[in-house]
Amino acid sequence: MIPDYELERGAMTRGFRTIAGVDEVGRGPLAGPVTAAAVVFAEGQIPEGLNDSKKLTARAREKLYEEIMSVAVVCVAHATVEEIEEHNILRASHLAMTRALVGLACKADYALIDGNMLPRDLALPAQPVVKGDARCLSISAASIVAKTVRDNLMVDLAQQHPGYGWETNMGYGSKSHIAALQDLGVTPHHRRLFKPVHNILYQANLLTD
Length: 209
Fold this sequence. Notes:
The structure is a single chain. With 209 residues, this protein is of the alpha/beta class. It has helices at 6-13, 58-71, 81-86, 89-102, 132-135, 137-160, 166-169, 175-184, 195-208; strands at residues 19-25, 34-40, 73-79, 110-114, 126-129. The chain has a five-stranded mixed sheet, sandwiched between helices. Helix 2 crosses helix 6 (137-160). It starts with 5 loop residues before the first helix and ends with a helix. The mean pLDDT is 95. This is Ribonuclease HII. Keywords: Cytoplasm, Endonuclease, Hydrolase, Manganese, Metal-binding, Nuclease.
């Protein structure tokens, strides 16, 4: 499957003019925020080679990220670890998506959103697109931007909290990350309600009781 511009064109034929693709990354990690991006392209100014960010090498993502940022209107937004714990990961990812849309320098009048659900309280018409990052060029671009920004953020956090391997695992629950959690403990950037982190906190509480 190769992403195309058909969904954007379809929205334009219905009278919409500024169509944003939206995607998020970071639902699964044990640490760090969830990050979303909204991307608006002008037809004819779309980089070649866009695809689901998970199908691209890091080098390809970085190159495409620079190209996207040079030709598109882009906004990136986050939902914090505290918001993930206050609500849940789905609601937090939707908060990040909504913030990305609101923050666009040009106001979108239609959104194509990766997944099978729309964030509640959206202030514009939208449609969910299952596997959108592999089907829709604007969503593919959003997935690349969101992953690149979040990966870089986790590399920065890894320098502040060495030992967890965030510069390579990006906060996901790798064996080395789990081992570091057991040896080094839980940081403020860990999602305490996620099961592996919660279990380690529970075990630590048992030892101190």
